[in-house]
Amino acid sequence: MKTIDIIVAVLLIVGGLNWGLVGLFEFDLVATLFGGMTAPLAKAVYVLVGLSALYQGLQWKAIQHRWGLVPTAA
Predict the structure, then answer these.
(1) Model pTM?
(2) How far apart are CA 22 and CA 20, in angstroms?
């Protein structure tokens, strides 16, 4: 599961940086790299970033336990 956590974290970083570029410079890096916002590959990246956000939100407590960030009850 830690591998999925890392992939999700990378996708969320990509999404966050992309939104930062859109907000600051009106530049969509994902669309530029993958052939426009409606290109199938760009859409796949957008969907994966969205699913990663859902996963991260729903699994927050479980991820903290997996990574040993929350002490277990004695």
Answers:
(1) 0.79
(2) 5
Q: Which two tokens stand for residue 55?
A: 């996963």
CA distance 3 to 7: 6
> Crossing angle for the helix pair 40-58 and 2-25, nearest 10 degrees?
120
In contact, 31 and 37? CB cutoff 8 Å: yes
| Local confidence pLDDT in tens for the 74 residues of the chain | 789 989 999 999 999 999 999 999 999 999 999 999 999 999 999 999 999 999 988 888 888 888 888 776 65
**31-66 per-residue burial string, b: 16 or more CB within 10 A, e: under 16:** beebeeeeeeebeebbeebeebeebeeebeeebeee
* C-alpha torsion angle, residues 38, 50, 4, 39 (rounded to 10): 0
